[in-house]
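Write out this protein's structure.
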Amino acid sequence: MTLIQQDRDLWSVQHQFGWQAGLVPIPIRMSVLRLANGQLILHSPIPISAALERELDALGSVGYIVVPKAHGRFAGEASQRYPEAHLLAAPAASWRRRALPFSACLTDQPPDAWEGQVNSLLVRGFRLQEVVLLHRPSRTLVLTDLCFNIHASSSRAARLFFRANGMWQHFGPSRLIRLLVVSNGSAFRRSLERILEWDFERVVLSHGEVVERGGPEALRSAWLR
């Protein structure tokens, strides 16, 4: 695993995670955002090897670790490696990981140090309670499970599963998420419309390939058409 630079002050790195009791390897991306003060935000932490730690140290100091509701598997490891970092939970993530020293819950009001650089928004009417980030300097939207964009896998079982679940080689939600995770259609749509008011072009996803251009149209087509 090695960091890939998406833009100035924006990097990401992927890890293959054994989903569905280890039977389905799925890519999980950790996004790294650097603030003007040099602090790093780690979004959706993955296992941090010694080599990856050296890469991160070369970029700045880890100030924040953002833990989405369904992406807390490696949060404890990241917190132990960076004990001075603020551990921020998406709503409902904290009760799933009670032993972790969460500093705060991240919703629509990001930490003061992010002011003018990173926006956050809680997606209402969505059972996964996803908090979307906007990295304003690079015009990049950071998603967790709102959309997938998986185009390659060496596992035949994974390819079959992704195809069956509508999450293979196109940008959009899985069939299960579309059917089961939206709890309030009106509130969910209002949240999407607020996100689409943001100024972004790129979309970095936790699962799948980065969308470099046309992000707003891709998001609109995935959910609102």
